[in-house]
C-alpha cells in the first residue's frame, strides 16, 4: 500500500504561499496521472495543479479558500485503488485545523523546491519524519515567509525604516501582514525605528480613510483572491513609481490595409486570427531598442537596462486581470508574435499558464480599447519603467495635405496611445520620443504583402 502527499507547489521563486481556490476532486474520487486535482491562486497566477500519480483521493487536509505556505500537505492520494473509498464521507477539516497543519507541515518541510520543479512535484511521497527547522541555519521557510511579505507591506516597512525580519506577525509562519505593520505603526513603533511620517495623514492612518459601512439593501461580498492580490499590487505599484502619462494619436490606416491584404492568406496558413496587436508589439520592440530606459528597472540608486525584450500583455478575465509575458519578443516574426499571443491568452482564460509565463516582463501593453475606451492612464507594473495603453481603434475625419499642398479631409483609422512612465528614470522628452518612434513605425510599417 503506497500513499503520497499532495503539496502546495511553489509557483515561482518569490512565491511563499498560495490559496487553494477550488477542489476538482473529492475524497474517494479516482485520479489519473497528470489530471488536475485542485486550483490555486497566488500573487502571480491562477493555475490548475495536476497529480503526478494515479490513485484515489484518501484525504483532503486544506479547504477551499484557505491560504497556506508552499509545501504544505493539502491532500493525500492512495495509489492502491479503492483503499480510500471508505473515507469518502469524511468532510474537509475545519479552517483552524487546516491552518495548524499548514504551519506545522511548512515548518517541517524546510526549503521549498524550485519554481520549475514545483508543478511537476505537486505530489510527493509521504514522510513520517522531517528535519528540524532550526537545522536550516536561519534560511528555512519560516524565515523566508516572515521577510518575504507582500509588496505593500515591504513598501510600508521601507518608508518607515522597519526591519521585517525583527517582527513576528500573525500570518503564516509569523509572516508580517498589512494589519500587523499598521498596528505596529499606530503603537508608536515607527518613532523608535526612526520612521518618516506622512505629511498628509497621521502615522498608521489608513490611506483611504475610514472604511465605509454598508447601508440597508446593500450587497456585501468578500473580494476574490485574485481581486485582493490585484488591489495590493496596484497600490504598491502606484506608490513605488513617479507616474506621468503622455498621449499620442496614431494613424493606423496603413497597418489596417496591410492587415487586410495579409489576413486571408495568413489565417489560412497559420490558423491564427491576425489582429492589430502583433504589428504594435513588433513596432514597440523596435522603439524600445532605441530608447532602452523604457525597458529598464529601478534598483535602489541603480538602473538595470534589460537586454531581453519581454512584453507583458494584460488579459481581462471574468474573474480578474492577468498579464502573461511574451519572452524575447524581439526574436519573433508577425506570425510568431500572433501564435504566442493567442496561445498565452487562450491558456490564461483556461487557467493553464505556467508560473514563469507571467513573470519577467520588461515592458507591458494593456488594451482597454477593445471595450471602447478612448484612452487611459495605466499603472506601471512593479519592476518596470513603463506601460503602454491602447485606446479604441476607430475611423475619424482627419485634415491631411493633398497632392498640391492643399488641406483635405479624409477618413482615417486612428487610436490614442497612452504611455505611463516612471519619472524617476524616464524623462518626459525620452518618453515622448519613444511614442513618436512608435507612431512613425506604425504609420510607415513595411508592407510585406506586396
Question: Nutshell version of this structure?
Answer:
This protein has helices at 95-109, 115-120, 141-147, 151-159, 178-186, 189-192, 225-240, 253-270, 277-290, 334-349, 428-443; strands at 3-7, 17-23, 30-31, 36-41, 46-50, 55-60, 66-69, 73-78, 123-125, 243-251, 296-299, 302-305, 311-313, 315-317, 320-322, 325-326, 363-366, 386-390, 394-401, 407-422. With 450 residues, the chain is an alpha+beta fold.
Could you characterize what this model shows?
- The chain has 450 residues and is of the alpha+beta class.
- The chain folds into three domains: 130 residues, Beta Barrel (OB fold (Dihydrolipoamide Acetyltransferase, E2P)); 71 residues, no CATH class; 202 residues, Chloramphenicol acetyltransferase-like domain (Chloramphenicol Acetyltransferase).
- Helix content is 29%, strand content 23%.
- The strands form five sheets. Strands 10, 13, 16, 17, 18, 19 and 20 form a seven-stranded mixed β-sheet that branches.
- A hairpin with a 4-residue loop joins strand 4 and strand 5.
- Helix 9 crosses helix 10 and helix 9 crosses helix 11.
- The longest helix has 18 residues.
- The radius of gyration is 25 Å and the shape is globular.
- About 18% of the residues have low confidence.
